[in-house]
Amino acid sequence: MSPKFKKTDTLFQLLATQASFLVTAADRLSDVINASPADRSTLQQKLHEAEQGADEACHSVLKLVNQSFVLPFDREDLYSLADDLDDVVDLIDEAGDNIVLYKPLTLPDGAKTQIELLQRCAQLTQSHIGNLASINENIREYWVTLNEIENQGDKLYRSMIAELFNGGTDALEVLKIKAVLDALEGALDAFEDLSSTVESIAIKES
Asked: How far apart are CA 142 and CA 28, in angstroms?
């Protein structure tokens, strides 16, 4: 269900709402990959609903930024922050779509680990976006931790791709699996971009 935004919602409240869809989307992607193939389509629809809610949240943030003369942070940084939050959810949704549409027979165990990393990133981001109104040293810990998680995801991605191409997997199946792994890696990379935007805001405000 899409959130109901009010004119009285502050920018920080709207950003916190937008960030909450990261957690919802990552959790629903986990539901998709852990479900039986027969149940995945229905669960992916729930992920689509989260993506649509995230879009609406992003539009509300951008609208408020556009209409405000006085803002807590640089206008361009706020545009980037809202766009980065939206990009992550879009890529999580893409990963779910690739699982459902391409129907890979099996996925590496590492794919589930990638989703667990996405869930960690989502939870951390939701917590820190909600505290942007009072930037403190914890923000630095946030982007350092996000970078560490993304590096872990990179290593896992490269390992899975190497195994995929070194095995005796059918060529078409390789393409299906790789499409899923690429989307998961893209979502983790997008989290790193998001953390860089948060870092930029924090540095300017320090």
From this structure: 23
pLDDT value, residue 24: 98
Within 13 A of 26's CA, how many CA atoms are on the CB side?
Answer: 28
Q: Are 77 and 200 in contact (CB under 8 A)?
A: yes
Residues 193/87, Cβ–Cβ less than 8 Å: yes
Residue 132: DSSP 8-state? G
Single pTM value for the model: 0.92
Say if residue 72 is exposed, middle or buried (CB neighbours under 10 Å; 0-12, 13-18, 19+). Answer: middle
pLDDT in tens, 113-145: 999 999 999 999 999 887 787 777 678 888 889
Three-class SS of the chain: CCCCCCCCCCHHHHHHHHHHHHHHHHHHHHHHHHCCHHHHHHHHHHHHHHHHHHHHHHHHHHHHHHHCCCCCCCHHHHHHHHHHHHHHHHHHHHHHHHHHHHCCCCCCHHHHHHHHHHHHHHHHHHHHHCCHHHCCHHHHHHHHHHHHHHHHHHHHHHHHHHHHHHCCCCHHHHHHHHHHHHHHHHHHHHHHHHHHHHHHHHHHHC
pLDDT mean across residues, the chain: 91
Query: What is the rounded distance in angstroms from the CA atom of residue 83 to the CA atom of residue 197?
Result: 10
